[in-house]
TrEMBL record:
Protein name, per record: Reverse transcriptase zinc-binding domain-containing protein
Domain Reverse transcriptase zinc-binding: 83-166
One Pfam family recorded for the sequence: zf-RVT
Lineage top rank: taxon: Eukaryota
Species of origin: Eragrostis curvula
């Protein structure tokens, strides 16, 4: 352990860890045959030292006959993995080094939108460029503008339909802006600073849903419909904000109203 954070074996012994020839070893196999039997033939001096350190730990392990006893905060009494426990651990309040943790998981947005934010910032949403790389679609071309590859950046920030939506709300998109740092978009004067990150996520979420309406429901891209969906979404999200901050939604809704 280092402070309050657990440290993994590869972090403690990086040279040793990369020399293992079998990534699926059981504890029993390691205890029975020793670690050296599962290493590459020639180890560096550093890897040999780390091997001796890990082997000294393995030597303290005693095997017992019977079923394994598994201890994890993510399994129930029957040994089944519970995704709810994993989700709660992901959004707990300890300090995180992840730069987008607060934006993805701590905004008062609905869980689906927060999960979308987590995927978006890592450019892992199911846009056509990602689907094309997986051989799921035959073309990566954007289905809204039919002009350019539908990457996460294009879909959310650069597509003419998305750009028009941002412009209508008064949010200026810098030429260097990227979804990997979407929370850093400059705030316009007419939008309150309080919960501005949630406002940004609301816009991204509705752009994504608008895109899906075009792709899956055969609707045409339409700025007025997108702005109305943003306004309706803002009204629905109001109750998720702390009561002291719900007044910002009025400014949000005004930004989505046609001029």
């Amino acid at each position: 352990m280092s402070g309050s954070r657990p440290v993994t074996l590869p972090q403690l012994t990086p040279s040793f860890s990369v020399t293992c020839t079998n990534r699926n070893l059981t504890v029993s196999e390691v205890v029975t045959r020793g670690l050296a039997a599962h290493m590459v033939p020639r180890l560096s001096h550093t890897a040999e030292q780390e091997l001796m350190e890990v082997q000294s730990i393995v030597d303290t392990i005693e095997l017992h006959v019977g079923d394994d006893v598994r201890n994890s905060p993510f399994i129930d009494h029957s040994g089944k993995l519970r995704s709810a426990s994993i989700y709660k651990a992901m959004v707990h309040d300890e300090e995180h080094s992840c730069p987008f943790y607060m934006f993805a998981w701590k905004t008062p947005a609905p869980p689906k939108a927060r999960f979308f934010a987590w995927l978006l910032i890592q450019e892992r949403i199911q846009c056509r460029s990602n689907l094309y790389r997986k051989n799921i679609v035959e073309s990566a071309t954007c289905e809204l503008c039919h002009n350019g590859e539908e990457t996460a950046d294009h879909l959310i920030l650069r597509c003419p339909h998305s750009a028009s939506s941002w412009s209508a709300t008064g949010v200026q998109i810098p030429a260097t802006a990227t979804v990997t740092e979407i929370w850093k978009l400059p705030k316009p004067d007419h939008i309150p600073a309080l919960h501005f990150d949630c406002y940004i996520l609301l816009c991204c979420w509705q752009i994504w849903k608008h895109r899906n309406d075009v792709v899956f429901n055969d609707l045409q891209p339409f700025l007025s419909r997108l702005q109305m969906q943003c306004k309706e979404g803002a009204a629905l999200w109001r109750c998720r904000l702390p009561s002291s901050g719900q007044s910002v939604v009025e400014s949000w809704c005004l930004s989505f109203s046609p001029m």
